[in-house]
Amino acid sequence: MMIFDIYRNAGNSPVVQLVVIAVVLDTVFGCIRAAKDRQFNSCFGINGAIRKIGMVVSILALILVDQIVSFNLIGFLPEAARAYLGDRIGLTEFFGVLYIAYETVSILKNMVLCGLPVKALWKAVKTFLGRYTDELRIPLAVLVNESSASASEIFAGAVQDYGIGTIVGTTTYGKGVVQSIRQLSDGSAIKLTVANYYTPKGNNINKTGIKPDIEVSLDTSLLNKNKDEITHEEDNQLQEAIKAVEKEK
Predict the structure, then answer these.
(1) Which of 41, 103, 154, 202 can pair with 22 through a Cys bridge, CB separation 3.0 to 4.6 Å?
(2) How confident is the model at residue 133 (pLDDT cuts 50, 70, 90)?
(3) Cβ atoms 148, 186 nearer than 8 A
(4) How many CB atoms lie within 10 A of CB 42?
(5) What is the pTM of this model?
(6) pLDDT single digits (tens) 173-213
(7) pLDDT at residue 79 in the model
(8) Does residue 45 or residue 58 have the better pLDDT?
(9) Residue 151: closest CA among 217, 192, 195
(10) Of 135, 110, 124, 121, which is closest to residue 34 (Cα–Cα)?
(11) What's the Cα-to-Cα distance from 18 to each of 15, 106, 157, rounded to whole Å?
């Protein structure tokens, strides 16, 4: 295989593409910061740009190394990252992930020091992406308590893991297993655990439950009331959820 073909195939890797994008963005914001502070020969100016070139060159070298020697470094990455990278990564992807993490922090730092409204820009990006994806992009709060179990817990855990809403209330029941009753020949039966529930990030909720983002118990004055008798105005948990939704708007 020719070197050109090797690099062309490597260019299809999302990790390599993200490294290049991150390096370009960091260089651009670093130059803007250097111009703003009039410090062109600095760690974020010319010197910084040279180091960024070094990053790209090292990725190009690692691509060739991966063609000669086969490594699998997936075990060195946290579980959350493995879900997106598959079962095998070489030197290029491994160091690419590290570069991306470093560059992301550097980009945000340079944006802040350039005087750019990072929070406003991130909100605009989320809004833009929400228009062109099927993801739920509305202010969301999920009320839970100690009686929230099984599927409702998994839903709350998914909302929490993906960061698309706020969980309000008290820690959930913690039922993370699926059980099946098997009839035996003597007429008795046995209950077997046949599956486990996990949140999208791989958290096992069994006997631990989901801890809410905003922990608030139902007011003691409402405990003896029938739930149908509690008005929306006096339900302090509901009011906290409404406040959380208002903050997300």
Answers:
(1) 103
(2) low
(3) no
(4) 14
(5) 0.51
(6) 999 899 899 999 999 999 999 998 899 888 899 999 999 99
(7) 67
(8) 58
(9) 195
(10) 110
(11) 5, 14, 28
Q: Tell me the C-alpha distance between 216 and 153, whole Å.
A: 17
End-to-end CA distance of the chain: 53
Strand partners, 180: 192
Query: DSSP string spanning the chain?
Result: --HHHHHHHHTT-HHHHHHHHHHHHHHHHHHHHHHHHT--SSTTTHHHHHHHHHHHHHHHHHHHHHHHS----GGGS-HHHHHHH-S---HHHHHHHHHHHHHHHHHHHHHHHTT--HHHHHHHHHHHHHHTSSS--S--EEEE-TT--THHHHHHHHHHHHTSSEEEES------EEEEEEE-TTS-EEEEEEEE-B-TT--B-TTT----SEE-PPPGGGTTS-GGG--TTT-HHHHHHHHHHHHH-
The pLDDT value given to residue 111: 78
Closest Cα to residue 162, out of 136, 188, 184, 185? 136
At a CB cut-off of 8 Å and minimum separation 6, what does 192 contact?
179, 180, 181, 182
Sign of the four-CA dihedral 156, 162, 166, 172: positive
State residue 114's pLDDT score.
74
Q: How far apart are CA 227 and CA 235, in angstroms?
A: 10
The answer to whether 48 and 59 have CB atoms below 8 angstroms apart is no
